[in-house]
Design a protein that fits this description.
InterPro entries: DNA-bd_dom_put_sf (IPR009061), MerR-type_HTH_dom (IPR000551), MerR_fam (IPR047057), Redox-sen_tscrpt-act_SoxR (IPR010211). It holds the Pfam family MerR_1. This is Redox-sensitive transcriptional activator SoxR. Keywords: 2Fe-2S, DNA-binding, Iron, Iron-sulfur, Metal-binding. By secondary structure, this protein is mainly α. The chain has two domains: 98 residues, Orthogonal Bundle (Multidrug-efflux Transporter Regulator, Chain: A, Domain 2); 48 residues, no CATH class. 47% of the residues lie in helices and 6% in strands. It has six helices and three strands, in the order E-H-H-E-E-H-H-H-H. The protein has a three-stranded antiparallel β-sheet. A hairpin with a 5-residue loop joins strand 2 and strand 3. The N and C termini lie far apart (79 Å).
């Protein structure tokens, strides 16, 4: 390891735009792991610039710290992730984003009417969800999370 491969917390903050307190928080959460100098000062690998940048971007995309932790666990530690590493990670994040976009689109498209839980409009729900048939699929707004009235086994009228 060359001397330029190790940087201080201040240099890491400067390079990533993260505050020193944020870097310490990510360390406490186990997302980055510094080394310690002889004087017990935090020292980081140059690869941590990319790791920390990824953390900040992933948070902006709405990933939880647990999701970020899992993603980082798949990356090599001690070396800068390469294009193949990032492509694998990006593919998984893309799938998650696509699922969230689909769910948000359904929510947007159904916002003015019944969302399948019976709480917004009893008149509309009586048409789209007779006798609360959606409850058979589970709790929550069934139409928003992907179920469709056509998928429901509607109760038969006697």
């Amino acid at each position: 390891m060359k001397p330029g491969d190790i940087i201080s917390i201040g240099a890491l903050a400067e390079r990533t735009g993260a505050s020193v307190s944020a870097i310490r928080f990510y360390e406490k959460e186990g997302l980055i792991t510094p080394m310690r100098s002889g004087g017990n000062q935090r020292r980081y690998l140059r690869a941590d610039i990319r790791r920390l940048s990824f953390i900040r971007i992933a948070q902006q995309l709405g990933l939880s710290l647990e999701d970020i932790r899992g993603a980082l666990a798949s990356l090599p530690y001690g070396r800068t992730p390469n294009a193949k590493d990032w492509a694998k990670l990006a593919a998984a994040i893309r799938e998650d984003l696509n699922r969230r976009i689909e769910r948000l689109t359904r929510l947007r498209d159904n916002l003015d009417g019944c969302i399948g839980c019976g709480c917004l409009s009893m008149k509309t729900c009586a048409l789209w969800n007779p006798e609360d048939a959606a409850r058979e699929k589970g709790a929550g707004p069934r139409w928003v999370i992907g179920d469709r009235p056509s998928q429901m086994a509607l109760p038969r009228k006697a």
